């Protein structure tokens, strides 16, 4: 059932459902009665730009309000209000100092897609239209409509590995094809509303309407409900999550005993950019030698050398929304200024006086 729910394409869904029917027909009958677009990724609307098919959002919010959730309703609402007031302020301040242009999570995902794109072979069919071969599959990538027939780009608004390979072949930058939803101007915009400080009961104004009194409480004979389990007399307490007793696992090499920051193995691409505070690397990939398999006769020539500046006016122009400011630096300066210069910063975000653009770490702004 998971295979059917998580499949990106209708073809994969059909195969998974056939398999399910073979394994357990009553399950298949039960599942077939539920509308597909309610539970299977392949039939979901591509407008929401997310590939989540579980209710993580409500779980996360529940965890977020856990310390105030059990309080009386007015206290709980004031508690949630205070949390959001502080959170929005922190996010605004953090994002203004951060070095990233695309939000950290999507920067890391894009770096992985860049790595995977090295296994794809793009061939141009028309201006902005590409046929990309990846393993046994062949996909249609349309740079104008920002779409790939594998549907990952359509659903997540982040170029898939097929799209990235076509974008590089067209000598463009994958960062320019990431949706504005995941860029700094939209991030700042979503945290723009200011929660004004709110007076509590001492600041209330007397009105003509009748006072609303709290509901009458029952007499609690049995006392407060027990919230925590009582430890046994000889029970050894569990190590806390942040305890040094727990073993850490390196997310780079998967060995235990050290963090990825002190790993001796070369970094995975998404961890490398995390260590660099998610500052986008806009360097073109090195030329890839043609695969030495039997398909080498049809393989295209290796990629052109990276520093081949093209006139942006003649290059294929990606569709832009009003949020994206016109690039005034040009491709030449991207290369001459070096991959790590501050060309990724968006012109729409004015610098805050007294805070340099290469500010402190953004690790507190997830
Ligand atoms: Zn794709
Ligand atoms: Zn390691």
Automatic annotation (TrEMBL):
PANTHER family: MUTATOR TRANSPOSASE MUDRA PROTEIN, POLYPROTEIN, PUTATIVE-RELATED. It comes from the Eukaryota. Residues 214-241, 277-328, 346-366 are annotated as: Disordered. One of its GO terms (molecular function) is zinc ion binding. Signal peptide: none annotated. The keyword Zinc applies. Residues 217-226, 232-241 have a biased composition (Basic and acidic residues). Residues 310-327, 354-366 have a biased composition (Low complexity). This is SWIM-type domain-containing protein. Keywords: Metal-binding, Zinc, Zinc-finger. Residues 139-171 form the SWIM-type domain. PROSITE patterns: ZF_SWIM (PS50966).
